[in-house]
Amino acid sequence: MINYSDAIKKRRSIRNYDKKHLEDNHIVKVDKLISKPAIGPFGNKPRFALIEKPAARKQEKVRLGTYGFISNAAYFIGGCIEKSEFSEVDYGYSLERIVLELTRMELGTCWIGGTFKRSDYKAILQTKENEIIPCITPIGYPAKKKTLRERLGLTLTDGSLRNEFGSLFFENDFQTPIVFNPEDKIHQALEAVRLAPSAVNKQPWRVVKQGNKYHFYIFRDKMVSKTKSTDLQKVDLGIALAHFKIIIEENYINGKWHIGDPGIKEGEYLITWIKE
Ligand SMILES: Cc1cc2nc3c(=O)[nH]c(=O)nc-3n(C[C@H](O)[C@H](O)[C@H](O)COP(=O)(O)O)c2cc1C
């Protein structure tokens, strides 16, 4: 199996799936993966379920989002988490860890936070009054071809584009960009943040380094919805924290999450990682 940094580089949103049914050994592995207890940096614990969509197996197109179509996916991972200020962050963190394991198993996924039918998932997941379903993902074998919409360039986002390193990561304040050094092990973790998926590919993550502290911020985009039920850009930040932490761990660097707003008056402060 490939390592995590290669999985991060390899992962793409897969919107067109092979009609082949998931093999039993894959179903067993996925079940095992999603039933492991998960916890995010803010201490919230999501739960996940593998859901088979019978309609999709009859090769109908399942329309899930306000942008993009998912074709032929027969399985989805749905999940929920108790609503609190940072629960979407922890949900994004936990589900992206699963997504990267699935990427290592050569299974395709696509974060979906748009207008999928939350009520279907509510019934299956038996959500409680105070629980939300921030996002779901289809799961399956990627089809050889892209969807027609993708081939015609009709999707709203080009998933391959990312902002430059120096426009996302800074030293001391938001005025001084960090120059990427590929040999620097923490820069490698920041580079993994840069490659993360995000809603409408808006890449709302920013990091300011102050000494051994790395402060994570959200720079919001009005195009991405923040509804009462879900704040998708907090999910984005959770995904980014997972990428950062996974590469920190892969590089054997010690550190911990800490909440301590340094008081920079830009963006929305979320959390700090302190190198020990
Ligand atoms: C929180 C979140 C919500 C998303 N919602 C949708 C969606 O509703 N429909 C869709 O087609 N893609 C959705 N995406 C996928 C993004 O468009 C995609 O990750 C981004 O364009 C980058 O492309 P890549 O994943 O191929 O690297 C979502 C991604 C994230 C992280």
Describe this structure in words.
The protein is an alpha+beta fold and 276 residues long. It folds into 2 domains: 4-150, NADH Oxidase, CATH 3.40.109; 165-275, 3-Layer(aba) Sandwich (NADH Oxidase). Helices cover 30% and strands 18% of the residues. The chain has 8 helices and 10 strands. The chain has helices at residues 4-10, 24-35, 54-57, 87-104, 118-125, 148-151, 185-194, 232-250; strands at residues 47-52, 75-82, 108-109, 131-132, 137-140, 169-171, 205-210, 213-218, 255-258, 268-275. Strands 1, 2, 3, 4 and 5 form a 5-stranded antiparallel β-sheet that branches. Strands 6-7-8-10-9 form a 5-stranded mixed β-sheet. Helix 4 packs across helix 8 and helix 7 (185-194) runs antiparallel to helix 8. The two termini are 30 Å apart. The structure holds flavin mononucleotide. Flavin mononucleotide (FMN) binds at residues 12-13, 15, 65, 67-68, 110-114, 135, 157, 159, 197-201, 232, 235-236, 239.
Q: Under CATH, the topology of the largest domain is which? A: NADH Oxidase
- Oligomer category: single chain
Tally the structural domains.
2
Shape: globular
Identify every distinct bound molecule in the structure, by name, code or SMILES. flavin mononucleotide
Q: What's the CATH H-level superfamily name of the largest domain? A: NADH Oxidase
Which structural class is indicated by helix and strand composition? Answer: alpha+beta
Low-pLDDT windows of residues: 59-68
Distance between the termini: 30 Å
Rg over C-alpha atoms, rounded to the nearest angstrom:
18 Å
Largest sheet: 5 strands, antiparallel
Order of helices and strands: HHEHEHEHEEHEHEEHEE
Strand content: 15-25%
CATH architecture descriptor text of the largest domain = 3-Layer(aba) Sandwich
